Amino acid sequence: MKDALFGGVNAAVLTAMREDFSPDLDRMAAHAKWLLANGCNGLGILGTTGEANSFSTAERKAILEGLIARGVPASTMMPGAGVSSITETVELTQHARAQGCRGVLLLPPFYYKNPSDDGIFAFFDEVAKRVGGGIALYLYNFPQQSAVPFSLSVIGRLLDAHPGVFKGVKDSSGDYANMKAMIDAFASRGFEVYSGSDEFLQKILAEGGAGCITAASNGNSHWGGIVYAKRTGAEADAAQAMLTATRKAATSVALIPGLREIIARSTGDAGWRTIRPPHLPLSKADADKAWAAWEAAGALPLPGLMKQAAE
What we know:
The protein is an alpha/beta fold. The chain contains 13 helices and seven strands. The protein has helices spanning 25-37, 57-69, 86-99, 117-131, 143-146, 152-161, 176-186, 201-206, 217-230, 234-250, 255-267, 284-297, 305-310, and strands spanning 8-12, 42-44, 103-106, 136-141, 166-171, 192-195, 211-214. The chain has a seven-stranded parallel beta sheet with strand order 2-1-7-6-5-4-3. The chain is globular.
């Protein structure tokens, strides 16, 4: 897809924390800059991998402002702004717009289960009206976590009601047929479809999708950048094979603490292991398992990361 606002590889960025569980913005900003220098076109901050729902509205605002103050370009960031409250979703979205972000990622209202399509439409219709434009709204389809999927019908109604406002979707369902259905139905209207699964990057680009927004990009973005740049050919195929292998490695243990372990060992910075409850750091056995899986994939050492850490 041409002219996608966040076209390419976007990391679902880990949120660094101090021992008291407060955000460590210096550490996080350094990681974000490394990602942008090593294959990432953009950054999905405060999503699932960034533990957004473990942070308050005030903390989310402070994280975004702190990253910008430390030199992470606002234009590269797509903050997660979707919560179950219309008013806070609007507040976070307007805040992101005021900081210069081009788009936000919106979970559906996820507490009440089995809402009707009419209810989901009404929620996002109200959000769009209150936000008032000036920033792209991206839907976050992750039914395994939210238990509230986005149907094609709801997406179509939102595009009809708010042309140019609902700009795309991150589909973390793992169901490529669902991603392809969204592309087939809406790509001609400029709707950007991003895979939440690394193994689909090459395929979704070939079939009219915009790219990916993925957790494993915290460690495999170097190869994602090759796939996005080359698309086809031996080098792209080999890089896609690495994305698939590292995705499998990342999911061999609990995903978020597992990625923290990989970054901690790669940089020699144990602070990356700090994670807010209810998440917990990996056990020694699982930490060793995660590292062994990334080694077996051939990904370690992560390109440029030890150099970045030393600096």
